[in-house]
Amino acid sequence: MFYPPHSITYDVPPVKVQLWGLFPTYYNMCRGGPSPWAAFAGEDFMDRIQEEQVSAYPREIVDNMRKAAAMAELVALEFGPRVHVAIVAADSFSGLALSLKHRLRGDLNLIVDGNVVPLSRDLGDLRGEYERVRAYTERAVKSLEESVA
Q: According to the model, what pLDDT value does residue 40 have?
């Protein structure tokens, strides 16, 4: 999942912001066109399937997913085309590579332009966490803009 798909051009390449953690894996059926199951199971069949998949995961993993999505959205909205935000699942190939490269541990980590920022487990502290994330991101963006200028 990548944020933001801006059509705005920018002279400076975007800063890479990655959120790494253990997130639920969705097994998705094709949503292109009407589902043949909808006639039997109802129109909300696909949504119920996803809800059922997520309910099988421990609460911590689902909370990580929600926190990462909220954090990615806030960074993308504030910094726009100056950043390229990616959510990387720890159990993917790129997630494994990041964990080996940066020796990542814990539930959720932020990697801003190669610098690791461990995030707390408390979902309720998203606003306080975002201030740290914003400071790291802002520093990386300013540094990149100054080096190009």
A: 64
Output the CA–CA distances (angstroms, integers) from residue 131 to 64, 85, 119, 125, 126, in the order listed: 18, 17, 11, 10, 9
Q: What is the mean pLDDT of each run of 10 residues along the chain (149 residues)?
A: 51 85 69 59 69 80 81 89 89 92 86 84 70 88 83
Structure tokens at 105: 């541990």
Phi and psi, residue 24, nearest 5°: -65, 145
H-only helix segments in 80-125:
93-102
Q: Reduce the DSSP state of residue 139 to 3 states and report it.
A: helix
Amino acid at residue number 79: F
The residue assigned the tokens 């520093």 is 139
49 located within any domain: no
- Answer yes or no: is 69 within a domain: yes
Range of the domain at 18: 2-28+59-148
pTM, two decimals, is 0.71
Structural domains in the chain (count): 1
Note whether residue 98 is domain-resident. yes
